[in-house]
Task: structure prediction
Amino acid sequence: MMNIRKLLTVGGDERMLYTSQSLAEKGFDVEIFAPSPPAGFEHMRPTGDKSIDSAAARADAVILPLPVSRDGVHLNSSQLTLNELSDTLERGQTVFAGMMDGALKSSFFKKGIRVFDYFEREELAVNNAVPTAQGVIKIAMENMKITLHGARCAVTGYGRTAKVLADMLAALGARVTVAARKCSDLAWARTGGLDAVNISELMKTAPELDLLVNTVPSLVLDCKTLSALRRDCLVIDIASAPYGTDFACARELGLNVIVPGSLPGKTAPKSAGEIIADAILNIIKEGS
Result:
C-alpha cells in the first residue's frame, strides 16, 4: 500500500468534488485547490492559495480531472496551464489523473513523479457503464416523440456500456437489436434475449429504427447506413473520438444526431465521483 494520506484535488467538474468528498470520508486528508469552498461543498477544505506551488507542496498526491485537459493547454475547468502544473510538482509525488496526454505523462515521469491513470482501470470502466447508459436513456426520452416502451432500438458494439444499455432498454420494453462484429458478442446478445445482427447488416434493420446508439469509436454509421434511417430516428453517439458517425452526411440528411460528452459526470456526478474515488483507493491499496 502506498504511503499517501494528504491529497490535493485540482480542476475538474462537480464529480471531482464528489471524488474529494468520498476520499475524505474514507479517512484521507483532502484539500481542494480553490480560494473558498464551492457552493454545496462548504464542509470541504479549500486551500485558500492563489498559487498552486504551496498547495502542491503540502500534498503526497495530486488528483487531476477526467479528462485532464480539453484544449491541450489548460487543466480541465481551470485557468492553470499544464506547463504550470508540471513545473510545480516535485520528484517523489504522485499524480492520479484521467485520460492524461502522453506528452504530459512523459514530462512527469522524467521528473520522477509517479503517474496513474484511473480511467484505465477496468473497475472504473465497468462501474461507469451504468450512469452512462442511464444518461443515454435520459437523452432519448427527452428527444423522442414516442415512449421507449415498444420502440425499435439498435446499439452498435457490445462492450461494457453497450451491454448495460441494451439490457436497460429491453427492461423498459424496447425492442433491442445489437449490431456487432464478433460472433461471440452476437451469441451473448441473443442469449440475453436480444436481437443481434452483424454490424455489416445494420442497414437492413435501419429503416425500422426509432433510436440508434453508437458505442464504436470508428466509422460504422456511414452515409449508406444513415440514408436508410427514417428522418425521425434519433441517433446518439457515445463513442470516444473520432466517434463512429458520418456527421456531415447526417446533417445533409437532416437527422438528429446527439453527441453527449462526459455522461457519467452530467447524469450522476456524485456516483461518478465515488467511482473515481474507489478506483484511486484501489490503486493506493495495490501500491504499484
Notes: The CA atoms of residues 23 and 277 lie 6 Å apart. The longest strand covers residues 175-180. The chain has two domains: 6-120, 129-265. The chain is about 40% helix and 15% strand.
